[in-house]
Design a protein that fits this description.
six-stranded parallel sheet; alpha/beta; single chain; 496 residues; 14 helices
Length: 496
Amino acid sequence: MLKIKRRDFIKSSVLASSSFLIAPNTVLGKSHGHTAPTDKLNIAAIGIGGKGKADLRGCETENIVALCDVDWKYAKKTFEKYPNAKRYWDYRKMYDELGKSIDAVTIATADHTHAMITADAITLGKHVYTQKPLTHTVYESRLLTKLAAKYQVATQMGNQGASDEGVNLITEWIQNGEIGEVTKVECATNRPIWPQGLMTPEKADRIPKTLNWDLFTGPAKLKPFNQIYHPWNWRGWWDYGTGALGDMACHIMHPVFKALKLGYPIKAEGASTLLLRDSAPQAQHVCLTFPARENLPKLALPQVEVHWYDGGMIPKRPEGFPQGKELMGAKGGLVIFHGTKDILICGCYGLEPWLLSGRIPNVPKTERRVTYDMEDFNTNHVQDWIRACKETPASRIKSKSDFSEAGPFNEMVVMGVLAVRLQGLHKELYWDGPSMRFTNIGDNETLKIVIRDGFTINEGHPTFKKTMTDPLNAKAFAEELIKHNYRSGWSLPSMP
């Protein structure tokens, strides 16, 4: 690992950097997405080989001053596209050297490093755009929510559908009472499209010279490198990713969380194909139960069950659904809102919402629209954040997935991961949201998890051989999933 001197300047620079404000385009009388040279943010990007590359396209109205990645082969094209940006392996060194000159940071690393990179940027007073899922754990989500509020920076999670019209329409239709009360929602994705349900590799591969595996590992336990982990396929490994649920639920479930004004669930239960210690299962079903919320002017909000399916599992077709029509919606996602008056269906990102009755609601437009005339809604989503960065905290209009909403929403998403990983307890798990703990896991409960599941044919007969963990204390295991114990040398700021 590179030995980086810790930031002695953090405390002294926070006030200065957070008080440095750029006049917003609306004040200067310019249209969004076009700025004068003196009205540009200095943006640094961390994680630039995959989704970060697309996020940077949305930042090209600004000054891209620094690029950071742990794999310089994967990042090569992005480095070449922005030749004037300074290059880094370690984000901490970048913060140390350029902290005072950076206004904002985009973060598109593996899931398990989102929280620490984002938290460090916020405590330096930097605006942040962090890819989904916002964090790897419930605790990390809660921390980023509170840090963003404390330091008053502009924030955005990279669930770009939040800035598109579908989520607006779904929210307006439901909250206007068009489908009645909702007590059940079903969500699904056609993912994973990467390998999952895999045994832990038994051999180590040679680490490429262009990859710093120690930096990629970050706060997780350092294990031997294998090509199955990187690039991109880390999504299917618990140490680094959150499986299909974490990858896609931030896109698919967002209109559910927003329109129904959900908060903390009170119960969670998960089931899946073979659950392994290290790799996410091939298919999952999760049920989260949310309590009744305060009624809206035109809509009561009773207790509601939200179901999630992936890996080929899918809800039953609603009665009256057109024969011959594919149930899975646009972009490989599906949401079915079961209302007392009607059923609302949409695809991933809230795309193409429609009512099973065939009605097209005509309701007041209560949601803010994001319109920048850009090439796609991902760019619009980034530009909405850039706009917020240029407004003062007192006058700022929050971006469409500001951490004040994205943080609590991401807690819902990673709660689904918890339910799956704790399914070996064979019960509904009761959740105390404010305290971030399960209330019905006893001090002495244990569970075992499969490490390997061998299968051979001997003289025409099947032979099964499972390798299991020793009995784990269930309460301690759950607590570690809620709040990770970081590897030595890596840490998070304290909870405000």
